[in-house]
């Protein structure tokens, strides 16, 4: 399975995404769990 990166969710996901990207981690801001669940169902 190809690693597509990490999705961060929750109230501070934007801040966490910026922090981890500055460390070179492949991640994206997934916003709320509802948004992630919807996108995963497509």
Can you walk me through this structure?
The protein is α+β, with helices and mostly antiparallel strands and 42 residues long. The protein has one domain. The protein has a two-stranded parallel ribbon with strand order 1-2. Helix 1 links the parallel strand 1 and strand 2. The model has no long low-confidence stretch (mean pLDDT 84).
Q: What is the number of helical segments per DSSP (H or I, 4+ residues)?
A: 2
Q: What about the largest sheet?
A: 2 strands, parallel
Structurally, how many domains make up the residues?
Answer: 1
Mean pLDDT across residues: 84
- Give the beta-strand count: 2
Strand order of the largest sheet: 1-2
Key words describing this protein structure:
alpha+beta
Q: What is this entry, summarized?
A:
The chain is α+β, with helices and mostly antiparallel strands and 42 residues long. It contains 2 helices and 2 strands.
Mind sketching the topology for me?
Layout: E1 6-8, H1 13-22, E2 27-29, H2 33-41
Parallel strand pairs: 1-2
């Amino acid at each position: 399975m190809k690693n597509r990166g990490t999705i961060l969710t929750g109230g501070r996901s934007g801040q966490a995404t910026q922090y981890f990207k500055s460390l070179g981690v492949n991640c994206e801001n997934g916003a709320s769990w509802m948004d992630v669940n919807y996108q995963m169902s497509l």
